[in-house]
Write a structure and sequence with these properties.
The complex is a heterodimer of chains A (255) and B (225).
Chain A (H helix, E strand, L loop, with lengths): L4 E12 L2 E12 L3 E5 L6 H8 L7 E6 L2 E2 L7 H6 L1 E4 L11 H11 L5 H14 L15 H13 L5 E5 L7 H16 L3 E5 L3 H7 L2 E6 L2 E6 L1 H6 L4 H14 L7
Parallel strand pairs in A: 3-8, 3-9, 6-7, 7-8
Antiparallel strand pairs in A: 1-2, 1-4, 4-5, 9-10
Helix pairs in contact in A: 3-4, 3-5, 4-5, 5-6
Chain B lengths: L1 H45 L2 H16 L2 H15 L6 H27 L2 H9 L4 H21 L2 H8 L11 H12 L2 H29 L11
Helix pairs in contact in B: 1-2, 1-4, 1-7, 1-8, 1-9, 2-4, 3-4, 4-6, 5-6, 7-9, 8-9
The chains are: A alpha/beta (255), B mainly alpha (225).
The structure holds adenosine-5'-triphosphate and magnesium ion (MG).
């Protein structure tokens, strides 16, 4: 797949105090591609995703979306962020708004759509994640899986060019994980560009174009699922994959 | 006994006029306290260090002074020094309101901070500016959470409003005192005043409780399901 490169990440560095969390991360993302990031806790996966949409400002390095610099973009960041959807581990739904209003609110306040348009668009996105019948429920009335699907709909409503998922299923019961992964698979198959931090190797194997293994703030190795899983170059990668296997069952298991 | 009842009924219309003054002081101070308190809280949480520091100083100052001292400072000091000739009522609302804002700001700050940074991150990730996120996402939630605690401000201000007697605002206690100075019958009159305060307190708390229920977010609190 030699498509157009829509996201470029170059030499991202980030430290908190004296701890270097990211130590020079670079990669390119092609349109329609899904990249999966794995790596042990504290290696900076979340920080990396947040650096991409500048929720965390990196100390050094650049991010480009469609050739436009996202880092150092000043006020333009609010426009650029609309094009970079983000899904969080613990959903972060707006608790005072119904599912539909959660999806609507940015359309009205940021995209300045009128209520009717925004409402229709919100319903469309809720249909896409299979939750049209939950539109009028509040987050506290939804199951974890439903809440995460609403948060995906909320991000999709902005018509993003790329979606960032930070461990979208790790706060969910195993039974609920599947419904969220299914929505993500559908998205990937419909050509969405996605960066996903997850340890769901079944998902990674069936959807990812590339798996990136991060270690101590660096990319240790990367490759297609079959390359990385069957033939990891480093012992460290092998160890990590074995540990995942022990924790989550056989790698390559399909959901 | 009959004399006492007659006295109370004769004095009542005069004293009851004070309830409107008291209510206006309380409502005014609550409003000043709410608007300033909210602005202070937002400034303290989201402002640069200098702004946060200034808010902390403001809070420390206004919480550290007894009501009466603040009232006198405003009445004899601040406003005359600024060359402003304002009514005692206006001074009462300003002093009690600013003091209340110091307390309210800390209540709001706690509620804003209890939301966690996830809400702000989610809002910003959708392209909202910081003010948009604060206004549309953070404050609607923080204010709902703050309502039970905020209800405290009403009885506090209601009872505090009586100190404005000291600068001659024609509220309930001032009027009661005027009656006492003419009739030399303190007990029945002060008991009448006490009863009025208690009824006002009860009514106000009832209304706040209703408001709290109306603003409830479904699926949250109360344990109804
Ligand atoms: N706001 C912050 N302030 C200080 N340190 C932070 C902050 N955010 C992250 N860190 C530190 O940065 C390191 C990387 O954190 P990060 O959350 O990016 O890791 P991660 O790979 O996502 O881990 P996990 O798999 O547990 O989610 C950790 O050591 C963490 O303590
Ligand atoms: Mg993380």
């Amino acid at each position: 797949m030699a498509g157009e490169i829509i996201l470029k990440v170059r030499d991202i560095h980030k430290s908190y105090g004296s701890t270097e969390v990211l130590r020079g991360i670079s990669f390119d993302v092609q349109k329609g591609e899904t990249k999966v990031f794995i790596g042990s806790s504290g290696t900076g996966k979340s920080t990396l995703l947040r650096c991409i949409n500048q929720l965390t400002v990196p100390d050094r390095g650049q991010v480009w979306l469609h050739g436009e610099e996202v880092t150092h973009s000043g006020k333009e960041i609010n426009r650029l962020r609309q094009k970079i959807g983000m899904v969080f581990q613990n959903f972060n739904l707006f608790d005072h708004l119904t599912a539909r209003k959660n999806v609507e609110v940015a359309l009205i306040k940021v995209r300045k759509m009128n209520r009717k348009e925004a409402g229709d668009k919100a319903m469309e996105e809720l249909v896409r994640v299979g939750l049209e019948d939950k539109a009028d429920l509040y987050p506290a009335e939804l199951s974890g899986g439903q809440a995460q699907r609403v948060s995906i709909a909320r991000a999709l409503a902005m018509d993003p060019d790329v979606m960032l998922f930070d461990e979208p299923t790790s706060a969910l019961d195993p039974e609920l994980t599947g419904e969220v992964l299914q929505v993500m698979k559908d998205l990937a198959q419909n050509g969405m560009t996605m960066l996903v931090v997850t340890h769901e190797m079944g998902f990674a194997c069936s959807v990812a174009n590339e798996i990136i293994f991060m270690e101590k703030g660096e990319i240790l190795e990367s490759g297609s699922p079959s390359e990385l899983i069957c033939n990891p170059r480093y012992d460290r990668t092998k160890q990590f994959l074995n540990k995942l296997g022990e924790l989550y069952g056989d790698i390559g298991r399909q959901r | 006994m009959n004399d006492t009842i007659t006295l109370i009924f004769k004095a009542l219309p005069f004293i009851l006029q004070g309830t409107f003054v008291t209510l206006k002081i309380v409502a005014g101070a609550l409003l000043v306290g709410f608007i300033c308190g909210l602005a202070l809280a937002v400034g303290q949480v989201y402002g640069r260090p200098f702004l946060s520091g200034s808010v902390a100083f403001y809070v420390w100052f206004f919480r550290g002074l007894p009501n009466l001292v603040l009232l006198f400072l405003f009445y004899y000091g601040l406003f005359p020094l600024m060359g402003l000739d304002v009514s005692a009522f206006f001074i009462a609302v300003t002093a009690l309101g600013l003091r209340s804002s110091a307390y309210q700001s800390q209540l709001f700050r706690g509620c804003i901070q209890s939301l966690g940074e996830g809400q702000m991150m989610a809002a910003r990730s959708l392209g909202m500016t910081r003010p948009q996120a604060v206004w549309n996402i953070i404050l609607p939630q923080a204010l709902r959470i703050s309502l039970p605690g905020w209800s405290n401000e009403y009885p506090i201000l209601l009872t505090d409003s009586a100190v404005t007697y000291a600068i001659g605002v024609m509220e309930i206690l001032t009027r009661g005192n005027l009656v006492v100075s003419r009739t030399y019958q303190p007990m029945p009159i002060y008991m009448t005043c006490a009863l009025i305060f208690i009824i006002m307190n009860y009514g106000g708390m009832k209304m706040l409780h209703l408001l709290e229920r109306r603003l409830q977010i479904p699926g949250f609190g109360r344990g109804e399901h």
